């Protein structure tokens, strides 16, 4: 991919002020990405929660309609018609409810999964590595400090050797964590666009393939309304016809 | 409408135990209807709230995408492409958001309005009239009691006249409120089916005429995805072609 900024990993050994200032820019960028994607995550989570709630509420409604028959209404004249009508309605609303449930699942898989992964894995990794790098940096600074004080006091060879060993280990550690940290920040630059676009595409594709259209929810069409109206109107018409 | 049970208003004057026991049955039925429609109201309110939340969350998402340009990312290589892509996405999600908003409005008008009216007007009226009738009944019982004690003690004509006047007024009042109460209970019998069916029809019609289908949301179709993919792929192809 051309045009993507990279932190030069080969510079981690020298650890110059220039490298540090470049690191600062990348850290700022990572923080901005993190903030923006956090906002997007929250908005998407609201969509997802609302879709789940819609699915649950629709299911509850159809359940209530099915329970109409079991209600004890002391006055229940021609409740047969009412019951069968509500059963038909319940069937339609049931279908809508499963359409909503399918949409919820699609949103979970195609929208929530990628953005949660990005947030919980990639962005969290950078925060962790930042801390680890900070600790390694502090350790190294401490070791170097001790070494510089040591040379003035001219201690014995054994202590000198220990302190030098300490500087070596801590610098090695700092170099390693810095390389890891740089790699993670570079990876973020490669991933950032896809990580924002993927959940959005997932959301939109779930909407496009939304099963709530007439092709997959065959019952709920204007034609269904007509047929229901006709089937209920027919007895009345035949009564009229027989009267003639 | 044939087959609908009615409380005989002409019996309110006599106020026999039979009438009272029939009233009890109607009151029980009204309580059952009230309970059932309260449950339905709650389920529908959940649907409505979820739909509103979905609309708001979708709007927020599209707003966030539009704000991408204004974000300060220190590293912003070829952000032009990203910005324009997100603008396109924002446009689609904006459309979806207004579709959701239209659906919310439809649910408010065709589902929430009738069921709220039924709950707040018809069912509440019955509760109020029940109380008023209870008070008038108690007043009447008190007046009759006083009258019965009066005849034993043989008071003077003036007091007797007052008490009889009291019995007359309270019986008239009781008769009137009982007629009102009976009328309200009879009206409920006529209204109950329509009041349950109307909001359900409103809900289903809002779903059928849901503007989220491709005819009214022209942007979000599989074809749109293809065209977006093509328009982004084309520059690459032309670059290849020019290289040949």
Automatic annotation (TrEMBL), chains A, B:
The lineage of its organism: Eukaryota, Metazoa, Chordata, Craniata, Vertebrata. InterPro entries: AH/BAR_dom_sf, BAR_dom, DP13A/B. Signal peptide: none annotated. Residues 7-208 form the BAR domain. GO terms for biological process: signaling. GO terms for cellular component: endosome membrane. This is Adaptor protein, phosphotyrosine interaction, PH domain and leucine zipper containing 1.
């Amino acid at each position: 991919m051309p045009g993507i900024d990279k932190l030069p990993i080969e510079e981690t050994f020298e650890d110059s002020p220039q490298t540090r200032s470049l690191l600062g820019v990348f850290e700022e960028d990572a923080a901005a990405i993190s903030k923006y994607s956090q906002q997007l995550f929250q908005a998407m989570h609201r969509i997802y929660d609302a879709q789940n709630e819609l699915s649950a509420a629709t299911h509850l409604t159809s359940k209530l309609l099915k329970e109409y028959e079991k209600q004890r209404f002391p006055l229940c004249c021609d409740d047969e018609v009412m019951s069968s009508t509500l059963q038909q309605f319940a069937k339609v609303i049931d279908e809508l409810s499963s359409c909503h449930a399918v949409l919820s699942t699609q949103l979970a898989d195609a929208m929530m999964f990628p953005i949660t992964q990005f947030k919980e894995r990639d962005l969290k990794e950078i925060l962790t590595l930042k801390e680890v790098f900070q600790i390694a940096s502090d350790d190294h600074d401490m070791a170097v400090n001790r070494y510089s004080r040591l040379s003035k006091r001219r201690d014995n060879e054994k202590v000198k050797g220990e302190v030098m060993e300490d500087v070596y280990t801590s610098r090695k550690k700092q170099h390693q964590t810095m390389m890891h940290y740089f790699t993670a920040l570079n990876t973020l630059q490669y991933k950032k666009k896809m990580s924002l676009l993927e959940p959005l595409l997932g959301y939109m594709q779930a909407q496009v393939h939304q099963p709530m259209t007439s092709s997959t929810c065959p019952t709920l069409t204007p034609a269904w309304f007509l047929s229901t109206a006709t089937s209920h109107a027919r007895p009345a018409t035949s009564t009229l016809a027989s009267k003639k």
